[in-house]
Amino acid sequence: MRQALADRYRFERELGGGGMSRVFLAKETALGREVVVKVLAEELAAGVSAERFTREIGVAARLQQANIVPVLAAGEADGLAFYTMPYVRGESLRHRMAGGAPLSMADRVSILRDVARALAYAHGEGVVHRDIKPENVLLSHGAAMVTDFGIAKAISASRTQDGAGAETGATLTQAGGTIGTPAYMAPEQAVGGAVDARADLYAWGVLAYEILAGVHPFARHITPQQLIAAHITEPAAPLAGKNPAIPPAVAAVVMQCLEKDPERRPGSASDLLSALESVTTPGASGERPIPTAKPRLGLTLTLVALAMIALFWALVHRTTGSAGGEPPDRSLAVLPLANLSGDKADDYFGIGLAEEITRALAKNGVRVIGRTSAAALQAKGLDERAIANELGVASLLTGSVQRAEGQVRITVTLVSASDGAVRWTEKYDRPLANVFAVQDEIARTVATTLLGSLGPVAPGPAARTETADPVAHELVLQGMVLFNRRGAGALQQAIALFQRASARDPAYARAQASLAMALAVLPAYVLDSSPPILASAVAAANRAIVMDSTIPESYTALGYAYSLLGDLGRADASFRRALALDSTVATNWGWYALLANRLGDFPAAHERVTRARALDPASLILRIWEAQVLVTERRYAEADSVAAETMALDSTFMLAWSWRAYALLGLGKTAQAIALVEREIALSPEGSLGQLAYAYAIAGRVKEARGVIEALRRRSGGRIPPTGIMAAALEELGDHEAAVALLGEAIAAHDVWVVQFPRSERFDKLRRDPRAAAMLAKLGTT
């Protein structure tokens, strides 16, 4: 290294190092400044493509924030991968904790705040650290700085199973290991699962626990194996009992970070800042309890407080109703019922009940907007008036739910969105088994209140007990929440919950209908398993119909499954039947739009998407269905605008990234599309390598395209996955016969992304062959 870099750096001494690198102090000859040169550890460097490591580390080099030690340069010297960072004069947090000057409580909170700031900024830029620990926090001139951001990801992304090159695409985890430090490793990281920003929040929680309590949460464990097992299975002792000087708001957010389930951790590092910035410290000696201000809205604000705020607005701003003698607006949105049980794991119950009440209201003639939108907007921290404005509704139904010992207490309030006036409020105490009757009673009372001046409410169906098993009902509510999140992992969990509900009560039609919906959409997120999944979806839907033919979702699931299976006539009839039962189910309109899109009836497709979006204005998936129609129609600039807008609303919604990339490819902006797909894959395990191979092929980056294809071949047991996008990629690379054959396999396997979009431009080159043209034409006809 000294010889290879002699023209750039003068090495002075070795500073030490950790598990990933050896660290040297050097003088940068060009600028005369001190820098740290970090050389990858030998055991890691042996399997790393130095060229790709340098390229990957460029993502980390873009981070510029006061609490982050930036990457200055990266490269390869004599076969060794290295990178450089500024030399920070000071000491590591580990050194300070081990024997430096004692830290006051104010100092500890300040350090944690600085680390949280670094995480919030980096996560906003799409960079996850993966190795937060005291050794990687440097203390200098009263501030804490985090070092080695993005390095673990760069190593993982450039690591190969055999060290033969980056083209294999196999990460370190796939090769049988994982990057990170066992003492600070999140459970999902420890088992080699998908890692996102929430893994950093867990590591921050461990670090925070250690600095605040003076002891690691699993200090009694010594070996890496013991520590990993503890992270996966053992709860940490409550932090509040370790030191009375720890601010309660800080203790609460630290314990939330230590949740085993990533879904139960704070939503972002910004939530950590909300808790920490609400803490006032009395000074450097602050070893006595620190007074805290009321926490800001966020995960530190409890659902109870949200309900109280809603009631406050309703009571303070009570005024009269609509003016001018016009009929009252009958539109309504139902917010998730606040969970008062004291266990955040029960949040699903209030979310699911809101969905059930929404369904009952629609049957009683009320125009209900935003089945999933209301929950999404509330999760973003919008207040009630802002939610009503976004959804364009005149009233909101808010409330809370509390369960205990087989009983349920539901409190609901109907609020005028324009002035906050309470139009009606009621409390229901019932056995859990009677929850269906409560839902119906609430719906009819609200309908009467909203529609009373227009005449009597039409008699609706009598309340039905869909299941006598409260546990089966709760499983369905849990599954519905996961279904609305989409993604392969969430859908598979939802399917398991619906199956458990059905096993508990085989006559529970709603469980079977929900199972059918989840199974029908799953092939959009998993490869090479569509036929058996779709057959199961059809079977579940038919079982539900035999039990109860009035549930619209059963027919919606049939419509989508039949569409993918190629039985377009039965698909159309199923969608129409679902709409006849309930025209307020946005998913039905959206999937029906995709059927019109497949047939080339773009006016009908847009009309149906418009109907869906009117029902659920803030839904992200509905926006992407619009983008999909626009891409198929080759209106790429409009599709790009819709997808970009969706990404701005939620940068974690990966389907928006994929369809924006297709729009960019259609606009000829190949480099932008490739950068987008590469970042998508870096951020999410559900990113499309097939799309990346296709984009590389279009750009003429043949070696990289073939590298991705070979990686996918190895990952799929020696064959190329039978998908339409892979066939298109092979065609772009000139492998015409292989492309035609693979297209046939993809269609036979009912690959969602070819059977639903046979008119896409990406198949135009294949269409020149009469064999491929005939296969694609058959997909687009009834």
List the main descriptive attributes of the protein structure presented here.
Transferase(Phosphotransferase), domain 1, alpha+beta, Rossmann fold, six-stranded mixed beta sheet, 34 helices, 782 residues, Phosphorylase Kinase, domain 1, five-stranded antiparallel beta sheet
Walk me through what this model shows.
Among the domains are: 9-86, Phosphorylase Kinase, domain 1 (2-Layer Sandwich), CATH 3.30.200; 91-277, Transferase(Phosphotransferase), domain 1, CATH 1.10.510; 303-465, TolB, N-terminal domain (Rossmann fold, 3-Layer(aba) Sandwich), CATH 3.40.50.10070; 688-782, no CATH class. 51% of the residues lie in helices and 11% in strands. With 782 residues, the protein is of the alpha+beta class. A hairpin with a 3-residue loop joins β1 (9-17) and β2 (21-28). Strands 9, 10, 11, 12, 13 and 14 form a 6-stranded mixed sheet that branches. It has a 5-stranded antiparallel sheet with strand order 1-2-3-5-4. A 3-stranded antiparallel sheet has the order 6-7-8.
Précis, in short:
This protein is of the alpha+beta class and 782 residues long. Helix content is 51%, strand content 11%.
List the helices and strands and how they pair.
Elements: E1 9-17, E2 21-28, E3 33-40, H1 42-45, H2 50-61, E4 73-77, E5 80-86, E6 91-92, H3 93-99, H4 105-124, E7 137-140, E8 143-146, H5 151-158, H6 187-190, H7 197-213, H8 224-233, H9 248-257, H10 269-277, H11 303-316, E9 331-334, E10 338-339, H12 347-363, E11 367-368, H13 373-379, H14 384-391, E12 395-404, E13 407-416, E14 422-431, H15 435-451, H16 470-485, H17 488-504, H18 509-521, H19 530-547, H20 552-565, H21 568-581, H22 586-599, H23 602-615, H24 620-632, H25 636-649, H26 654-666, H27 670-683, H28 689-698, H29 702-715, H30 724-732, H31 736-748, H32 752-755, H33 764-767, H34 770-779
Parallel strand pairs: 9-11, 9-12, 10-12
Antiparallel strand pairs: 1-2, 2-3, 3-5, 4-5, 6-7, 7-8, 12-13, 13-14
Helix pairs in contact: 2-5, 4-7, 4-10, 7-9, 9-10, 12-15, 12-16, 13-14, 16-17, 16-18, 17-18, 18-19, 18-20, 19-20, 20-21, 20-22, 21-22, 22-23, 22-24, 23-24, 24-25, 24-26, 25-26, 26-27, 27-28, 28-29, 28-30, 30-31
